[in-house]
User: Fold this.
Amino acid sequence: MHEYDYEYETEDGVLRLGAYRNAFNAYVRWRLEVHDGEDEVNRSGELGGLTRDGMLVLDIQGYVRSNGDAETVALPDEAVEDLRDDLSEIREEIGDEMTDDEREAFEDDKKVILRAREILEDEGTPSVDETDEYVFVPETDGDEDGDEVTLRAKPRDGVAEVAVETRAVEGYAPKYDLGSGVLSLPADDWGIAREIQVPEDVAEPLLDDLMELQEGLNERKEAYHDAVRRARDEVLDG
Assistant:
């Protein structure tokens, strides 16, 4: 269990934070606890960072790759000040330990990323549209209706996945075969991932959404890599 230096109440829930060093990088470790009625949803990450305007980026690498299109959380002013001081201290420590060659390579990488951002801003990053939400009640073997299920295609680490929400569980489907109308719900508190049948009028458009979303994510990823390649040529050859 990781320790966190700070804890804050935010609009998104209880947020615990801590700056830490990973090799030659400084990141923000975070844990977000959201209470929704009787349910508690916990999320955490190791690659957080701060934007210039003081927002917590939950995945700084995804933020850079997507040219700023990534999930963020608003922070209290005192949290921003504390984290900036901690991150600055870690970066100074890293700088003191670097050799001249390592420092030069680090500065080149930073210039490449900044130039790649400029290229993407000038030329535009391929957009990824928000997909439709599908709500249905799966059939059960008993007399009672099952829990209402909400499905939507969402990006997750550059991959289009099926986001699932029910009264009892929330997350991403661990397995699905929409061509056959079969989907597994996220594991519950007992570690059980229950399988349900998805109606045809939901499965077909959801599968189309997944394919279109993945195509958009691939185009955006390629645009980023192309911008980095061009930026690296400019920086290293300039």
In short: The first helix runs from residue 60 to 65. The chain has a mean pLDDT of 83.
